Amino acid sequence: MKTVQGKVAAITGAGSGIGRALAKLLAQRGCHIAISDVNEKGLAETAEQCGQSGVKVLTARVDVARREEVEAWAAQVARELGGVNVIINNAGVALGSTIEDVRYEDFEWLMNINFWGVVHGTKAFLPHLKASGDGHIVNISSVFGLIGVPTQGAYNAAKFAVKGFTEALRQELEIEGLPIGVTSVHPGGIKTNIARNARVTERKGWVDAQASRDFEKAFATTPERAAQDILQAILKNRRRQLIGTDAVLIDLVQRALPTLYQSLLVAGARRWRRKALDRAG
Ligand SMILES: NC(=O)c1ccc[n+]([C@@H]2O[C@H](COP(=O)([O-])OP(=O)(O)OC[C@H]3O[C@@H](n4cnc5c(N)ncnc54)[C@H](O)[C@@H]3O)[C@@H](O)[C@H]2O)c1
């Protein structure tokens, strides 16, 4: 896709963070947008911030975990905006827990949003992107879709799954010669609300509120920067987009030390854990 001007893009999870920044950037570039979220207040704020751009803005409350809601939304967007060129499967949540402690209901909650939400969005919009003759699918994975990390087992499972699903999809569409690009996006730490809204199973020396705050403080990249990188990935039809210096570094370490990186993480986590246990007394 050479330009997004005059095109139609649908974005899930657009009530906050990366989704909101994408909606604003695409609207500024003259792209009509269909934005959805379960957070209707956040969504209304995003719509208001996109309002001055002179493009069409369609909002809908859509829970990406519910296939029928995503399918109905895709049909509505195509009908009301005259077609769809881009779907950005962005909605996501976080969960901090060891695998021993993780509750099945929390694991399923996360998988239903972070993995199945991406599948629902891709399959519901694919026929419309094919019909548009110039389409792009963006699926948001993470650097945690590149490396496994203690207390992130559920999130890792979903984000690795998104990467595999997206890479397979890209190849299938290429084999068929369809004019639809596909990008797997791997952000590092982005300053958004994700950590604040995370579910956490507290465990001394593993996961606690202080650890979540420390983790969030290390996030370096703004959502606006992430949105610019994602737009470039669409325009340049990139297979993969890393976001942030931390993501570039993590990718390098994973490729240079594909198994040894785990020993390094274990050594770092043990040191961090001793400090956390000392702090807790
Ligand atoms: N922030 C980071 O450091 C980071 C890093 C890597 C990947 N990501 C990924 O980026 C994406 C966007 O996250 P963000 O950082 O902007 O977080 P955010 O919390 O600021 O925004 C996520 C949005 O998704 C929405 N959402 C949650 N559950 C939903 C559901 N069931 N249906 C529809 N919408 C739902 C939320 O209401 C929220 O508005 C996520 O997929 C996340 O996993 C974020």
TrEMBL record:
<dbReference type="InterPro" id="IPR057326">
    <property type="entry name" value="KR_dom"/>
</dbReference>
<keyword id="KW-0560">Oxidoreductase</keyword>
<dbReference type="InterPro" id="IPR036291">
    <property type="entry name" value="NAD(P)-bd_dom_sf"/>
</dbReference>
<dbReference type="Pfam" id="PF00106">
    <property type="entry name" value="adh_short"/>
</dbReference>
<comment type="similarity">
    <text>Belongs to the short-chain dehydrogenases/reductases (SDR) family.</text>
</comment>
<dbReference type="InterPro" id="IPR002347">
    <property type="entry name" value="SDR_fam"/>
</dbReference>
<protein>
    <submittedName>
        <fullName>SDR family NAD(P)-dependent oxidoreductase</fullName>
    </submittedName>
</protein>
<feature type="domain" description="Ketoreductase">
    <location>
        <begin position="7"/>
        <end position="193"/>
    </location>
</feature>
<dbReference type="InterPro" id="IPR020904">
    <property type="entry name" value="Sc_DH/Rdtase_CS"/>
</dbReference>
